[in-house]
User: Fold these one by one.
Assistant:
Number 1:
Amino acid sequence: MTTRSELTAIVLAGGKSSRMGRDKALLPVKGVPLLQRVCQSAESCANIVYIVTPWPERYQHLLLPDCQFVKEVFLSSEKVKIQESTENSILLPTSHSEGPLVGFAQGLAKVNTEWVLLLACDLPRLRVEVLQAWAAGLDNVEGEAIAALAHHPKGWEPLCGFYRRRCLPQLLEFINQGGRSFQQWLNQYSVKVLPLPAPEMLFNCNTPEDLASIQ
Ligand SMILES: Nc1nc2c(ncn2[C@@H]2O[C@H](COP(=O)(O)OP(=O)(O)OP(=O)(O)O)[C@@H](O)[C@H]2O)c(=O)[nH]1
């Protein structure tokens, strides 16, 4: 059984929030900013929570005890070195915000546990008991699988599920070849399909209408 001490969480908070028109991470849902709600859920499942964001100062006041920022780096016309915590280092070019896959890679480079729980910051209906039940089953995931994710008619749900730390080299290779799509990347590898007892928990709060529907 994968316990809390054997799991790291990554929360992504760096998108444009263009459909919402303001920063989704800061939206209050039942009085608590969305990012903080997601971090609370992440803390219930993992000992360390990395918040990957280009602007940590914006969220400093929301930081919970087991959370740390990973500041996302963008350097124009230079290469950013992502140092894997153990093995080799790999060069990753960035010039501006590159989307969630690149943010995830920067967080994953910090992880030392076998499994990591990845969460978007815009999931207002997360259910801790479902995340914990999923985590408890990770020991049974066959060795070749790089991730354990829910699947729906549009494809994988990449921003609420589990990844093996050792997928980092493949991920960096895909990114360095120009790949930016979770779906394209995942389709190259074996992924365990997680049961989905609570599909509503994957609801993303993307628009003002979404926000109104959950208040
Ligand atoms: N760290 C990081 N997170 C990102 C980045 N792009 C998106 N995310 C996060 O990924 C999750 C899903 O983001 P989306 O809703 O697809 O994109 P968005 O840019 O936030 O919103 P839209 O502009 O409305 O598409 C959210 O938690 C975002 O904060 C990025 O470049 N870096």
Note: Residues 122 and 205 are 5 Å apart (CA to CA).
Number 2:
Amino acid sequence: MPPIAAREPRDRLRVAIQKSGRLGDPARDLLSAVGLTWRESRDRLFCFGEGLPIDLLLVRDDDIPGLLTEGVADFGILGRNVLAETGLDGTAPGLEEVRQLGFGPCRLAIGVPEGWDYEGPAQLEGLRIATSYPAITQDWLRRHGVDARTVTLSGSVEIAPSLGQADVVCDLVSSGGTLRANSLKPVETLLESEAVLAAPPGRPEGVRGELADLLLRRLDGVRRVADSKVLTARVPRGRVAELVGLLPDAEAPILTPALELGPDGPTDSGMFAVQALCHGEVSWAVLERLKAAGAEGLTVLPVEGMLV
Ligand SMILES: Nc1ncnc2c1ncn2[C@@H]1O[C@H](COP(=O)(O)OP(=O)(O)OP(=O)(O)O)[C@@H](O)[C@H]1O
Ligand SMILES: O=P(O)(O)OC[C@H]1O[C@H](OP(=O)(O)OP(=O)(O)O)[C@H](O)[C@@H]1O
Ligand SMILES: [Mg+2]
């Protein structure tokens, strides 16, 4: 395999994703869904894209911002928390969050001992805060006029108070189970996070720019598909406008006069067939409202693909 050089002219796009960890598999699933194919072997960090000229780099999430800054990768899939930290601590400033990807939801929060009566940021003055995100934490403290010391740990942050290494923590929280298991409670949210697609500013030049456009276009399509459903129904002619108004974030519905089969062949049923692509949630409550508005034969169908 040729060396993975950064700045030589390239006509293939590179996407860096987490090799393992929480975002590795969902990132692979997303890239498969946009039509990328590659072969992986356990010891190979570079995966040659087989279907499209888009290659993958399988790395630790912390290394993705640096790879983007150095021009080794064109896109990276990582948590907003890591992107924000490396943007603030000066190791990879100026990277852009190009898309939010909807998986890996969590928040960066301050956790204090459960027994505390927390009244606000001023209470953190002079304390030691254990965190893997010292730059975000210090930035937040500064903005709240609080002087506190961060103790940087790369993992198992929540145990630091019981070990006497820190007074409080600032770490990622999802279910809150890890904080609870360590007799801590969340009191401040510094950042809402999820997996994002990050890139250096500007569009890559030449053929890589075209590949970048293609990747983004397909990603948008996949994201829209995930949020979309097709709804079909029959509606009395006089209530079509009312019903269309109840559809959640629908694109212009297709309306067709519905025929019914009589003894002498098809005749006008007085109903319209409606087919609508809905981008909002088609919940049971929405279906009940549509039924109350006279809709019959309500059916919700999944969407397999879409090109926007
Ligand atoms: N409990 C959680 N729930 C949901 N998402 C989370 C949770 N914890 C972390 N994440 C998100 O997943 C990302 C990756 O987390 P993971 O624990 O795999 O990172 P890591 O241990 O630093 O991995 P690596 O070995 O690549 O450095 C985090 O940066 C964050 O965006
Ligand atoms: O609120 P919860 O649902 O309990 O999730 C929060 C925990 O998840 C992450 O750690 P992870 O499990 O990835 O282990 P790590 O410390 O090795 O990264 C994070 O650092 C918290 O410790
Ligand atoms: Mg990491």
Note: The chain is about 25% helix and 30% strand.
